[in-house]
Design brief:
Order of helices and strands: HEHEHHEEEHEHEHEHEEHHEEEHH
CATH class of the largest domain: Alpha Beta
Protein name: Porphobilinogen deaminase
CATH architecture of the largest domain: 3-Layer(aba) Sandwich
Shape: globular
Oligomer: single chain
Keywords: Porphyrin biosynthesis, Transferase
CATH superfamily of the largest domain: Periplasmic binding protein-like II
Number of domains: 3
Bound molecules: the ligand NCc1[nH]cc(CCC(=O)O)c1CC(=O)O
Number of helices: 12
Structural class: alpha/beta
Subunit structure: Monomer.
Low-confidence stretches: 61-68
Distance between the termini: 45 Å
EC number: 2.5.1.61
Cofactor: dipyrromethane
Length: 342
C-alpha cells in the first residue's frame, strides 16, 4: 500500500481498490463477482479497470501466438506498475510458472468443471452425429473448438463409438463461438460450462460432457485472484476468499501440466477430486489425459495421494501431480504431445 501508511484507517477504508479485468463479457462477469466478494472482506469499494490484452486483439490462432499467458501478461504488467491493486484471471489461462513479485492471493471455490456442448436443435453429441450421418445429409457432424485437448478427446470418443464427426478449429469469445451454431455454420461447439454459467447462459448447453468423454483443462472452472507480493495487507484480506479444496485440486492439476512440460494450449486434460472425504484428512485422486488432436492415441492415467487440508497440502497436491506426470511420461506421454498441430 504505497504511501498510504500516513492516512488514518478511516481514510484508507474509502480508497477504492482497483481490480484489473479483461474487457470480454466473461471476464467482466467473473471480475464483477470477485469485486463484490473483495468489497465484503476488505470493507472497501472496488472499481473495475479494463485492461486490453494481446489475446483479445490478436486474430491469430492461440497455438500460433504461443498460447501460454497471452491473456495474462497485460494484467500482470498493470499489477506490477501499480495501475491496479488486484487482477482476476481464469485459472486455466495462467501459465504454470510462478510469476516474480506477484502472489496468488486467493483461489475461490470452483464452478462446474465440465465442458459443455452447445449443439443445434438441442442435440447431444451422439444424437447430433447420428442425425448428420443419416437423413440424406450423409456427412460428419462439424464441431467447433480451438482446443487441442477437446479435439483429441472428441475424436477419440467418436472413433470408439463409430460416430462421424469433424473437429473445426475456431476461436473467439463465448458469443462468437455460439454464433457459429446459431448461424448454421457449425453443428456444435464445445465450451467450458463455468464460462456459460457465469454469463447466465448455461441453459444453452445441450449436453454437459461427462468425465468419461472429456477431462477438463487443468484449473478449468476456477479463478485466480492475484496481487503484488509487497501488498501484504491486501493479500491477507484476500485470503478470506480462498477455498482450500479448490486450491488443492488446481495445484495438483497444474503440477501435472508443469511436469509434462507443456503450456495451457497443449492437449492435456486433468481433474483432481477429493475421495473418501472425512474431515480434513482425506485423499486426492488425480486423473490426467494427453493425446494427439486427431484422437488416434489417448493416454489416460490416474494416481491417488494423501491430502491433509489443515496442513501443508500444496506440497502434497503438487507431489501427486509430479508423480502422475512421471508415470505418464514413462508410458510415452511426451511423444503424443510432440504432435502439437492444430
Ligand atoms: N480459454 C478461454 C477461457 N478461459 C476460461 C474459460 C471458461 C471459464 C473457466 O474455465 O473458468 C474460457 C472459455 C472456454 O474455455 O470456453
Amino acid at each position: 500500500m504505497n504511501g498510504q501508511l500516513s492516512t488514518t484507517p478511516g481514510e484508507l477504508k474509502q480508497q477504492p481498490l482497483k481490480l484489473g479485468t479483461r474487457r470480454s463479457a466473461l471476464a467482466m462477469a467473473q471480475s464483477g463477482m470477485v469485486a463484490e466478494q473483495v468489497s465484503k472482506v476488505t470493507g472497501r469499494p472496488v472499481e473495475l479497470v479494463e485492461i486490453t490484452t494481446y489475446g483479445d486483439t490478436s486474430r491469430e490462432h492461440l497455438s500460433q501466438i504461443g498460447g501460454t499467458g497471452v491473456f495474462v501478461s497485460a494484467l500482470r504488467d498493470a499489477l506490477l506498475d501499480g495501475r491496479i491493486d488486484l487482477a482476476v484471471h481464469s485459472l486455466k489461462d495462467l501459465p504454470t510458472a510462478a510469476p516474480e513479485n506477484l502472489l496468488l492471493a486467493a483461489v475461490p471455490e470452483r464452478e462446474d468443471v465440465r465442458d459443455a456442448l452447445v449443439a443445434r436443435d438441442g442435440l447431444t453429441l451422439d444424437e447430433l452425429a447420428e442425425k448428420c450421418s443419416a437423413h440424406g445429409e450423409d456427412r460428419p457432424a462439424r464441431i467447433g473448438t480451438g482446443s487441442s485437448r477437446r479435439m483429441a478427446q472428441l475424436n477419440a470418443y467418436a472413433a470408439a463409438r463409430g460416430l462421424a464427426i469433424e473437429t473445426v478449429p475456431i476461436r473467439g469469445n463465448v458469443d462468437t463461438r455460439i454464433g457459429y451454431v446459431r448461424s448454421g455454420e457449425l453443428d456444435a461447439v464445445v465450451l467450458a460450462a463455468a464460462g456459460l454459467s457465469r454469463l447466465g447462459r448455461l441453459g444453452e448447453a445441450t449436453q454437459l460432457l461427462g468425465f468419461d468423454l472429456m477431462l477438463p483443462a487443468p484449473g478449468q472452472g476456477a479463478l485466480a485472484v492475484e496481487c503484488a507480493a509487497h501488498d501484504t495487507r491486501l493479500a491477507a484480506a484476500l485470503a478470506a476468499l480462498d477455498h482450500a479444496p479448490t486450491r488443492a485440486a488446481v495445484v495438483a492439476e497444474r503440477a501435472l501440466l508443469a511436469a509434462l512440460e507443456v503450456g495451457c494450449s497443449a492437449p492435456v486434460g486433468a481433474l483432481a477430486t477429493r475421495v473418501g472425504v472425512q474431515g480434513p484428512a482425506t485423499e486426492l485422486r488425480l486423473e490426467g489425459v494427453v493425446g494427439t488432436p486427431d484422437g488416434t492415441t489417448l493416454l489416460q492415467m490416474s494416481a491417488t495421494g494423501p491430502l491433509s487440508l489443515d496442513g501443508s497440502f500444496e506440497q502434497q497436491a503438487s507431489a501427486l501431480g509430479r508423480t502422475l506426470a512421471a508415470r505418464m511420461l514413462a508410458e510415452g506421454a511426451a511423444g503424443l504431445m510432440g504432435e502439437r498441430v492444430l
